[in-house]
Design brief:
Largest sheet of chain B: 2 strands, antiparallel
Helix content of chain B: over 70%
Structural class of chain A: alpha/beta
Strand content of chain A: 25-35%
Number of helices of chain B: 24
Bound molecules: adenosine-5'-triphosphate, magnesium ion
Number of helices of chain A: 10
Order of helices and strands of chain A: EEEHEEHEHHHHEHEHEEHH
CATH topology of the largest domain in chain A: Rossmann fold
Shape of chain A: globular
Oligomer: heterodimer
Radius of gyration of chain A: 17 Å
CATH class of the largest domain in chain A: Alpha Beta
Number of strands of chain B: 4
Order of helices and strands of chain B: HHHEEHHHHHHHHHHHHEEHHHHHHHHH
Shape of chain B: globular
Helix content of chain A: 25-40%
CATH superfamily of the largest domain in chain A: P-loop containing nucleotide triphosphate hydrolases
Radius of gyration of chain B: 27 Å
Strand order of the largest sheet of chain A: 6-7-8-3-9-10
Number of domains of chain A: 2
Largest interface: A-B, 39 and 28 residues
Distance between the termini of chain A: 38 Å
Distance between the termini of chain B: 42 Å
Strand order of the largest sheet of chain B: 1-2
Chain lengths: 237, 557
């Protein structure tokens, strides 16, 4: 059984029909990527999965349990956390306090301490800046913090929304390395990206989203060869 | 090269700008009438009034600014130029007042500025009258003051601090003595004594300080005494304040009640970031429940409790009201929330005022004969005794705030304030966390209202108008948003000070506005800021304190 199973969901913003029947699944241990143009509905999909939005129709199950009617704070307790688009760190809190907030839903002190060490091992830069106010971190550091904060919930499924946005090529490389590393430590990843080339290089499978609908689903290798993907998202003629 | 050097030595623009700006402020003070009213209260009878002191301030500020800016360049200019700077700034400030006198001579300004009276002109010329040379008095005064400011600023640092302290203590003491004890300011003799004692004392202390501290720290007993006095001293001062008498206690009672409300609103707005403009509603509910349950006038309930019996009901009703009023606004943010809560505050007041509820809560006649609080033989009847009741309330609420802030709930509020969606995705129960903020804030306001009702023994709907909410919001902004001591200091500044300067009450809003603008420009984090806010608003200063001192770079190593 798939870890996450999204079945035919429709999400609305008032009258705007943003997701028009999306179905995806993510298996335990995978990295799956969701690519698509601006406004395709990628962020909407992630927000619907983690409960910030609720689908009008369709179901979402985690380990076979329906979660689409739960409020966001209960979904994180079931093991789904997100590093949202645009980082959105708590600007006035310090790095440490941000990470602690990430573990808000947990009460196992020892586990939290262990995960804090794990995050610092993944992002040594954050350890150097532990006491700094997050709003004064550089963009790349904020991205690391955003991912670190999501990891502090000790999720089974990590949702990443455009982790490479606005970062220099070297840092993008480093962040993707870290994502691979997080995945190899046992966390399943659903990755939303504009940088399709990089995303497909670390993912096992991928979905292509277009104006609220899935238009393509295949293995990452196949998608990299796909004529349409190459033209539209990889910029290769 | 040469030209640049000369420019750095004397920049005409600095004193001109400072002088003109201060002149505009002085004109404003004179024309709104505040100077004239304050002129009736003496600092030193026959020599200096509060009004004149007020008018001195722009001059001093102009001189200070001109001298300090000129002296802060890379290459400090020679002393002579500092004097010129100060004098020029003062002269220009005075020139604007002289211009007012000149215009006033030909045109009757009173048709537009009602306060441009002969008395004002008399005051501006120090009694010489606007005819003849009297018209030059403000400029001469400005010149002299500018030179004096320059001279003071050239004193060695310690001595300068002491002199400024001695000088400013004279009006402060005079105002305190006339406000609190119906005195008539200070005599020349006592003013000089105050100056000498304060300046001398503070100068001696600044020299001896290090040695005395060292002495004390070398003795274990001294160390212990120093530690004790650190908090025993404030406690003693707070405990002994009512000895000052009835009127000062009355003022402190109002300060305390507003501080109580401030601490409550601080949780809602400062901690959780929910801008609640209808906060007075909970104050009113606390007061009315107290009134309804205790006053012998209200018969329909069939119960007549004492203060202590009714207090829990008053507080709990306010808490419940906080939750009930919180539910409909759960989904609202920022400005929407502000407007809707503003409406709530007014609705409560209108309901209380309505004829519909008149048989139950008195309508516009209010509720009277509310009993005083009594413990055994002790009745909290006089302002002095009430003061202790209010201080006890403040202590409980301040303690609760201090404990809540770093708690799990406190951190949830903080996250909520920063980013609602993300906070929710971190596992924070939005509904519960928001309602708890509204409920806690309402509880504190309800407590304040209950004490207020018993203090006045009668309550009327008009006591619970929108201005109360605004005053409470202002005081936490001035004190420092999210800061617990800030709520108390803010209340002292915005509730206590205006009480001392009673003749300014009609200028209260004016002073509020000026204070807020000044704060936003010069100290946006408030008087006693929360450490976090200070970090955020003065990043550059904090960064320079950073041990590593390095600047962080975006590109990875
Ligand atoms: N809060 C909102 N209210 C109304 N419409 C919205 C809202 N958020 C998103 N939309 C609309 O929903 C559609 C999908 O938006 P979404 O943010 O999911 O796109 P995306 O694929 O993440 O795009 P990008 O790559 O630019 O982040 C867009 O047409 C957008 O305009
Ligand atoms: Mg997006």
């Amino acid at each position: 059984m798939a870890l996450l199973e999204v079945k035919d969901i429709h999400t609305y913003y008032g009258a705007i029909h943003a997701l028009k029947g999306i179905s995806i699944h993510v298996d335990e241990g995978e990295i799956v990527t969701l690519i698509g143009a601006n406004g395709a509905g990628k962020s909407t999909t992630l927000n619907t999965i983690c409960g910030i939005l609720h689908p009008g129709e369709g179901t979402i199950t985690l380990d076979g349990q329906p979660i689409h009617e739960l409020p966001a704070h209960e979904i994180v307790m079931r093991g789904v956390s997100q590093a949202p688009e645009g980082r959105r760190v708590f600007g006035r809190l310090t790095v440490i306090e941000n990470l602690e907030m990430g573990a808000y839903a947990r009460s196992d002190k020892a586990g939290i301490a262990r995960d804090m060490e794990r995050v610092f091992a993944l992002f040594p830069r954050l350890k150097e800046r532990a006491k700094q106010v997050a709003g004064t971190l550089s963009g790349g550091e904020q991205q690391m913090l955003s991912i670190g904060r999501a990891l502090m919930a000790n999720p089974r499924l990590l949702l990443l929304d455009e982790p490479s946005m606005g970062l220099s090529p070297i840092l993008v490389e480093a962040i993707f390395d870290t994502i691979r590393q997080i995945n190899s430590q046992g966390t399943t990843v659903l990755l939303v990206e504009q940088n399709a080339l990089m995303a497909l290089s670390i993912a096992s499978r991928g979905y292509v989203l277009q104006t609220g609908e899935i238009v393509l689903h295949d293995t990452a290798a196949a998608l990299q060869e796909n004529e349409m993907v190459r033209k539209a998202y990889l910029g290769i003629e | 090269m040469q030209a640049i050097k000369v420019k750095s030595r004397f920049n005409w623009l600095l004193p001109v700008k400072a002088g003109l700006l201060a002149g505009v402020i002085a004109l404003l003070l004179a024309l709104v009438g505040i100077v004239e009213i304050a002129n009736q209260r003496p600092v030193i009878p026959g020599v200096l009034s509060v009004g004149q002191t007020l008018l001195l301030l722009p001059f001093l500020w102009a001189g200070y600014r001109a001298v300090r800016q000129a002296g802060s360049g890379e290459e400090a200019p020679p002393r002579f130029w500092l004097f010129v700077n100060g004098a020029l700034a003062g002269l220009l400030t005075g020139a604007l007042l002289t211009a007012l006198l000149l215009v006033g001579k030909w045109i009757n300004l009173r048709t537009v500025f009602i306060n441009a009276s002969p008395e004002l002109y008399n005051l501006l010329t120090m009694g010489a009258g606007p005819a003849g040379v009297g018209i030059l008095v403000p400029m001469i005064a400005g010149l002299v003051l500018g030179v004096v400011v320059a001279a003071i600023s050239l004193l060695p640092e310690r001595m300068r601090g002491s002199v400024v302290l001695g000088l400013s203590l004279i009006p402060v003491l005079a105002i305190l003595s006339s406000a609190l004890f119906a005195g008539r300011g200070l005599s020349i003799g006592s003013a000089i004594a105050v100056f000498v004692a304060a300046t001398g004392g503070s100068y001696l202390w600044s020299i001896m300080q290090a040695r005395v501290k060292e002495r004390i720290n070398n003795h274990p007993a001294g160390q212990r005494a120093a530690q004790w006095s650190r908090w025993a001293l404030p406690v003693l001062i707070i405990a002994l304040l009512p000895l000052l008498g009835k009127y000062p206690s009355e003022v402190m009672d109002m300060v305390g009640l507003y501080a109580l409300m401030g601490l409550g609103l601080n949780i809602v707005v400062g901690f959780a970031g929910l801008l609640d403009l209808g906060y007075v509603a909970f104050f009113a509910i606390g007061a009315y429940v107290m009134g309804v349950l205790t006053s012998p006038e209200i018969g329909w309930t069939g119960i007549h409790l004492g203060f202590w019996g009714a207090l829990p009901f008053a507080v709990i009703t306010a808490t419940l009201a906080g939750i009930i009023l919180g539910i409909p606004v759960l989904g609202m943010r920022g400005d929407y929330l502000a407007i809707v809560t503003l409406g709530f505050g007014e609705i409560i007041r209108l309901v209380v005022l309505s004829d519909w509820l008149k048989p139950y809560i008195g309508g516009s006649n209010g509720i009277t004969r509310i009993p005083k609080a009594v413990i055994g033989p002790l009745e909290f009847g006089t302002p002095q005794t009430l003061y202790y009741l209010i201080v006890a309330g403040c202590l409980i609420v301040a303690f609760a705030s201090v404990r809540l802030k770093p708690s799990r709930l406190g951190r949830a509020w903080m996250a909520l304030r920063e980013d609602e969606d993300v906070a929710q995705a971190m596992g924070i129960n939005l509904v519960r966390t928001k309602l708890l903020a509204f409920a806690t804030g309402a509880t504190f306001a309800g407590l304040s209202g209950a004490i207020f009702a018993s203090k006045l023994t009668s309550i009327y709907p008009h006591s619970f108008n929108f201005m109360v909410s605004i005053n409470v919001l202002c005081l936490i902004i001035v004190g420092g948003m999210g800061s617990i001591p800030g709520a108390i200091v803010g209340s002292l500044a915005l509730v206590g000070l205006p009480e001392l300067l009673r003749e300014f009450t009609e200028y209260r809003l004016w002073v509020y506005g000026a204070a807020l603008v000044f704060m936003m420009l010069n100290r946006p984090e408030g008087l006693v800021p929360e450490a976090r806010r200070r970090l955020e608003l003065h990043e550059s200063e904090v960064e320079s304190l950073d041990e590593s001192g390095e600047k962080h770079v975006t590109v990875p190593g």
